[in-house]
């Protein structure tokens, strides 16, 4: 097989497309297949920097890890980073090319990008046995079909079979499957090979009559029923918001090694970006992570994290409006730990000069770190390495703000003053030795008898999660039929379902 492919679409956003795509990738690579992921257009505030300095969605970086290959800009040629209700930063082939309103993007530029998207996909297919593509939202968003470059536009342009995933835990999955197909044109319907049920609880035999009826109505079969599993939502896309759930961890009951647990509160700032930074903390036994938006929720926290954001000045105002700014200042005065990452680091400083992101000019920061920030038009996209607390650290940087550090102690190209730390480095807490050293510092400052686990490997945890996704596909999908679909495309002669049928 060479250049085989499949597009994983969904009946809705958050139907499970990202994890199903990753699961298929991991299943294939375990069969010795050279496979790569692809998503033509991604809207997400969770992004990653490749080794060549390109910015792509974190979901595609996670899927590349599932394939056991390095992520590249080819895997996510268009990334949209929301900056508000009406506009997004457009990142093309890993580099920002400007801000654009939703109307402006859908009205013109989007369709012109289809050629770029198909060229990237063709290049990936030429170098791999298979490419597993992920759609966005639903292929039945008929108001956007004319300018679609991520769902049926890609499927038809690249002659890919489409597998539609539906989340049965939400209810209405049969209607969603049928309606998705019925709303498509005859040409689009010809690409839709069948369905994959996701997040099923209970006895599969009770579902089979409905799947048989769906087959009879649409002429399309189910390729599997995946059971409901917790802890699989790794590196999810976030759209415009983030659910206030804790990040994925192996066990919510993992006991601490010491006498105390360590409580981490993450300020849920507007347009939060790369909140996946805290996943590595949540993986530690005895560490409890939660997202918060009220001052009272900081009271019992041993560590408060101010995460990255696509809107630093807006987040600063939000902290002040909610009283969180005063709570952070009080913590710093008491010597209680605070960590700012990227935008969170910037707003902890003395001032921000921003004529790029918010265009608000000079704004006073929280003054907890001796840092002055100036926003540059060029975005910093790097993969730095260094040392902190006696341990080697790797990270990645994605920011317009340029920090001038005027005091304090050096800390990962940022600084530390007392119990307040700040850095532009995303992903630094995934470095196991550094994470443990940092948690020891936090525990000491908080007066907790907490002991980090000496053998927690975040990389190994992620590998186990990806293997769990591969297991789901191998054990609960018809892998022989999936293989034929990837290798040969959608079956010929699939029936057309007129909108409104059956009578």
TrEMBL record:
Q: Report if keyword Secreted is assigned.
A: no
Cite the GO molecular-function annotations of the record: ABC-type vitamin B12 transporter activity; catalytic activity
Q: What is this protein called?
A: Cobyric acid synthase
Domain CobQ/CobB/MinD/ParA nucleotide binding, chain residue ranges per copy: 7-240
The record's Pfam families line, in alphabetical order, gives: CbiA (PF01656), GATase_3 (PF07685)
**Family, per entry:** Belongs to the CobB/CobQ family. CobQ subfamily.
Query: Which spans are transmembrane here?
Result: none
Q: Which InterPro entries match?
A: Class_I_gatase-like, CobQ/CobB/MinD/ParA_Nub-bd_dom, CobQ_GATase1, CobQ_N, CobQ_synth, GATase_3, P-loop_NTPase
**This protein's UniProt keywords:** Cobalamin biosynthesis, Glutamine amidotransferase
> Which pathway does the protein contribute to?
Cofactor biosynthesis; adenosylcobalamin biosynthesis
**Where do the CobB/CobQ-like glutamine amidotransferase domain residues begin and end?**
263-432
Catalytic residues as annotated in Swiss-Prot or TrEMBL: 342 (nucleophile), 426
Any idea what job this protein has? Catalyzes amidations at positions B, D, E, and G on adenosylcobyrinic A,C-diamide. NH(2) groups are provided by glutamine, and one molecule of ATP is hydrogenolyzed for each amidation.
User: Some GO term, biological process aspect, for this entry: which one?
Assistant: cobalamin biosynthetic process
